[in-house]
Amino acid sequence: MADKKIGEYYAPPPKMGKWEGFRKFIWNSETSQCLGRTGSSWAKILLFYIIFYAALTGFFAAVFAVFYQTLEADKPKWMLDNGLIGSNPGLGFRPMPPEANVESTLVWYESSKKENYMYWVEETERFLRYHTYDDLPKKNQVNCSFEHPPPEGKVCGVEVSSFAPCTLDNNFGYHVARPCIFLKLNKIYNWEPQIYDLANLPKDMPEGLKQHIKEKQSLRPNETAVVWVSCEGENPADVENIKSRDYYPRMGFPSFYFPFKNIEGYIPPIVAVQFTVETGVLINIECKAWARNIKHDRSDRRGSVHFELMVD
């Protein structure tokens, strides 16, 4: 409220109570002010912020439009060694322990108690159903072989029945103390394996795998284009406590599943490893994928995976 002039001086505004002062701040009928501003003042402020935020929105929209012009929807801008993922795939295993033990890699159960081992059966079944899209239409999928790789724009399917006896009907072996562990190679766009041939097998490759490759080479030489897989006990005691291990449908990932091109319907290959182990003993196991362009680094989880297995 404007002060009233008396002679050459201004008189202070009349004292008002809190409620009356607040009410006058909300709306001053003498000066037509709302919250201390006239209508024209509010209109100028509103116009300023409309223009300001419109310009800000336009600026960021233009920045994102230019940025997205450099990207493609179906493949990454930076691939292989130029990207953060790199060109050395990791190896993963399923089933995983409960989320409460998210950092654990221990598969531990009692084969004589159904309520105990059913968690692992259900987790494995959930993984296969999700991983193979078993309940969805198999888009772009064809049956592949070493002689018939997928044509352009198509991908190879994965049949759950090929993992037999590691199937749901058999409880994935958990009820008979022969658990099935499923291995998968992480997807890297446009990565292709450089397959080992018989003449350049690495010295640290397990002897059992070397012998298997030699047998394949002599009996079915056209079926050796494989990213080989081996699972071994980490320590001498672990090696002794693993009685046997069987690989289904084969001892590795066929090369016709690569490269990953983000084609709809693509399913990474899976290997089921069925272990027969000494019961009541904790066994440390390391599985490795073998190709000339796969390096093994346990600390970075490259090319290999570690887990513990204990069957009571």
TrEMBL record:
Taxonomy of the source species: Eukaryota, Metazoa, Ecdysozoa, Arthropoda, Hexapoda
InterPro entries: Na/K_ATPase_sub_beta, Na/K_ATPase_sub_beta_sf
Keyword terms of this UniProt record: Membrane, Signal-anchor, Transmembrane, Transmembrane helix
Membrane topology according to the record: Single-pass type II membrane protein
UniProt protein name: Sodium/potassium-transporting ATPase subunit beta-2 isoform X1
Subcellular location: Membrane
Short name of one Pfam family: Na_K-ATPase
Family membership: Belongs to the X(+)/potassium ATPases subunit beta family.
Chain ranges passing through the membrane: 46-68
PANTHER family listed in its UniProt record: NA_K-ATPASE BETA SUBUNIT ISOFORM 4-RELATED, SODIUM/POTASSIUM-DEPENDENT ATPASE BETA SUBUNIT
Encoding gene per record: LOC108611323
